[in-house]
Amino acid sequence: MLGNYKIISDENIPVKVSEMLRNEGFDVKRVPLGIGDDKISKIAKLEKRIILTFDKDFLNKKVFPPREHFGIVFISIIPPLIDSVFFSLIKLFKEYSSLDLEGKLIVVTTFGNREK
Predict the structure, then answer these.
(1) pTM, whole model, 2 decimals?
(2) How far apart are CA 49 and CA 53, in angstroms?
């Protein structure tokens, strides 16, 4: 059930989180260090991937319109402990199918998820 997600992991996502998601069956692609947000957006659209990020730039709907993406997941967990981030993401992916995330900007917190 959870393995049908294609994710692009921004450079600010801990490698361990990406590995843990892969171990759960997710198709996770990490971007190279230093890649620009616009390039991440282009790759995500081309490969039909959900963007996973801590980068607040992706909250700007004028620059990164959610309707043009297969999902943008902004993580707002402070402190960003690996286990907290991982379990919050798993909770999100249990609540939303990959199709449900398409065209949406979701903010993930330790208290739950909200569409922005």
Answers:
(1) 0.94
(2) 12
